[in-house]
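Recall from the previous lesson that a structure prediction takes nothing but the amino acid sequence as input. Here we apply that procedure to AAA family ATPase from [Collinsella] massiliensis. The sequence below is the only information supplied.
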Amino acid sequence: MIARSLEAKALEMASKFPIVSITGPRQSGKSTLVKAAFPSYRYVNLEDEDMRAFAVDDPRSFLQMYPAGTIIDEAQRAPSLFSYLQGAVDSTDRPGQYIISGSQNFLLLESISQSLAGRVAILNLLPLSHDELDRAGMPPKTLNSWMYAGGYPRIYAHAIDPADFYPSYIQTYLERDVRQTLGVQKLAEFERFLTLCASRTGGMLNKEGLSRDCSVTVKTIEHWLSVLEASFIALRLQPYYRNFGKRLVKAPKLYLCDTGLACNLLGVEHADELATSPLRGALFETAVVSEIQKAALSRGRQLKLYYWRDAGKQEADLVIEKGSQPWRIIEIKSSATYHPKFFANITGLGELMGIPAQRRYVVYAGDRSFETSRGAVITPRDIASTLEYS
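The prediction returns the following tokens.
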């Protein structure tokens, strides 16, 4: 098993809250993590039809059979169970009574907000980070091979070729999550939409263009984007909202959360293809945004993450806000060779926002991190340690 950075936070929260919830995309390693972190707990998976029927039809008996000290996997499959869980944990108010996990963030959070608000610590587990692979003694051979493979644990645990893993993953996702759980019926159109999102990762979101290309309404596109976000397949990065006397672009940027999935959707068949691909820059930016998210989520933090672009086309790839103030500013470059001009945009914007040089960063595709008078230059493998969000 590859050790997950989130485990320490899960154990900490189980010592403070009656219930700990861990959500994330399908096959991100949630079940493996909770079983490893809580080895003395009983385990039940509500993907099993018999167990799900038991939990739905007779929740009292289900909780008698699975009392405190139980992991309930895919808990969102039985939303009616949550009100009974409330009564069970409130009777003693002891921490660490239940660990619940699921691959549908929206449905799980909806059930929690209705019945378990204030009783649950909510954590998110994304696929493996570069840092986790390094600590497991499995560092990617090259940057391109890392982007091509993505981060889903099964690829590394069982040495599966990404070209074999992702088509099955996509079909499982479409059938079990998109159709059965979230009720999307136009699967062919949705699959085309997913591929178009991959081709536009790292770019400005144009819902009208997606609507035309998929032959569905803009309202449907908005619903489908929510589906991707709810299942941790994509995220929207909003523009930084503070004016600073500038006219700012208002459209969000769209990212897939895993570059391996994006590469497969785009028809990339080998890591070496990325060396000359016109999408390499966008995929590298996608990988970096994902790494920064993983670094924060593994510590139980939700990032206030934005991008900046004004009407004069001055831009910064990432602005991280802390409290109500801009905290760190980041430029992402897919070049393996550092040039001082990489700091050009974020130097002026950093001064405008009051972000000092020690909190300005360039993430590049080189193999050495170092400090400059303008800010830090870091590699993807150093994101977790350098950009800690605490």
